[in-house]
Each structure stands twice: as structure tokens, then as C-alpha cells.
Amino acid sequence: MQTEEDINMPTTFFTNFQNVTYRFGDNETPVFTKKLSQYVSVLDQLRNTETLIEKYTVIAGDRPDTISFRLYGTVDYYWTFFLMNEHIRESGWSVPSYDLLAESKIRYPHRTVTTNQDISTDNGSYELFPVGATVTGVTSSVTGTIIRKIPDMGQIIINPTVAGTEFLPTEELKFTSVDGEKKVRLVKESAQYDSVHHYEDADGVYQDLTPTFSFTSDSPPLPTDWITPNVNWTAVTYRDRLERKNSELQQIVVVKPSAIDGFVSEFKTLMKQRL
Asked: Which residues are CB-neighbours of 170 under 8 A, at least 6 positions away?
């Protein structure tokens, strides 16, 4: 008898889907692909029957085929999980919690620097620190390319020229504009995955930051107060956000073992009616 360690993912998911011709991009020759839209109306008839389904929590190491084997004694029904759960069709299978740090580093591999100065435009005439510009840390001499800029949070996301190098959290950052060299003072530097993605209130609602600047008499003038979030707001990092999303993906619905044979039979019947 097979064990969960011995089984391999089958390829039966698309067996019951009709082939249609489709031209991808600029290809002149149409190719055969699967008409995935067929299952939408079928699902409306099957998954709304609460007596057929139950909730299931995916744990570390679970794969669609191993869960199918555990629940139904066969790997052949792994496709029902994707059929019944739109969120995993759209975002993919969850990642084991012990792999989330590595996953966050892969998804968000850059450095995030934060300034308390206005980085939107210079007197409204041209963009400061635009995406694609090369920047340099004045003290560290670290260089990189701007990947993204979030002015209302004072953030600049940078891909360092040399992998593994970091800017200093309080140095000046410079780039050359159409009007010469421009600098901003940094107040924070971190890995992108550990930087703030957004702020939210106690109800989990995204909150917009409104930059306010008050300048000292220093030369160059530096803000004494910047984009200050409400004390009741919570900072959510890119890694936090990924962990939340992953937790959502671990919560799925499955067809009850006692109903799986009838469910699959009815699914195939309804699919054939649409061929």
C-alpha cells in the first residue's frame, strides 16, 4: 500500500476540460489549450451544498496529493481542492511556516531606505529620486538602482549594485538630477522584506499617511518631524503581509470523504453536458 511519502502528483486535473484553440500573444498559429471557464457554472451547482463540504487546515508539509491520499485513500482527487478554493487557484498553495523567511527574501530581495524629507519633486518642477536612477550613499559609497519610490512613506526601494551591501541608516543619499546633485538624509535602512508595507488601524483597515514637514535652521535644512503614523496604528511589514496571506491559504474547504465519489461523478456529468 502506498504511503504519503511514496506518492507523486497525478495529472488528472484537466481531464474533463474541453480543448479550445487560442492564439497566444503575436503567435499566428493557434494552439490547443483548456477551456477553464467551464468549471465556473459547475461549481455554482456543487460547492454551495454545505452538506458536501467541511473546513480543513493545511499543516506544514501538506501537499494537495498527500491531503487527497489522507482524506480519500487516493491521490486522484487533489484537483478538487483547487476547484473548491478560489484563493489557492489565484495565489497558489501555502508555504510551510519554516520556509516563509526564505520565501520573503526571494520575493522582496532589495533594500529599503527611509528619509524624513520630501522626495516627490523639487519645487514641483521635476521628480526627485526617480525609478531607474542610480543612487549613492555619501558615507558608505554603496550604490544601487531605484526600483520603487513611495513618497508618502518617505521610502526608496533600492537594488544594490553589489549584492549584500547595505546603506547606513543615517547617511545622506545622493543622485544626479537635471539640476545637479541632490541629497536627502536617511533615518532608517533595512531589508525590503522587513520594511513597512503599510499601516493599519485596530480594525485592520489600511491608513494613508499625510506627510508634514517642519524644518530646522540647519544647513541644509532638515525636518524635525516627518511622516508620523498615528500611535494607534500598526506597522505591517512585507514579511508580516506574506505571513498573513499564507495563513489565509492554509484555510481551505474540502469535499467530505463520505461525499467525494458522488461529487466527482456529478462533476464529470455536469462537465460533459457542457462539452
From this structure: 185, 186, 187
Task: Kindly state the cell numbers that stand for 87.
Answer: 484563493
Q: Residue 52 carries which DSSP code? A: G
H or E stretch at 237:
strand 234-237
- In tens, the pLDDT along 135-194 reads 999 999 999 999 999 988 889 999 999 999 999 999 999 999 888 899 999 999 999 999
Closest CA to 242 of 62, 96, 100, 98: 100
Please state the domain extents for the chain. Answer: 19-94+250-273, 103-244
Cell 469535499 locates to 255
Closest CA to 183 of 132, 220, 146: 220
Considering only residues 159 and 19, tell me which one the structure prediction assigns the higher pLDDT.
159
Side-chain half-sphere of 99: how many Cα atoms within 13 Å? 12
Q: Grid coordinates representing 112?
A: 529599503
Burial zone of 68 (CB within 10 Å; 0-12 exposed, 13-18 middle, 19+ buried) = buried
Residues 159-163: contacts with CB within 8 Å, 24+ apart? 159/109, 159/110, 159/111, 160/110, 160/111
Rg (CA), the chain: 26
**Structure-block grid coordinates of residue 73:** 485513500
Residue closest to 248 by CA, chosen among 3, 116, 58? 58
Contact 19, 78 (CB under 8 A): no
Strand partners, 201: none
The DSSP line for 75-130 is STTTHHHHHH-HHHHHH-SPPPGGGHHHHHHHHS-SEEEEESS--SEETTTEESS-
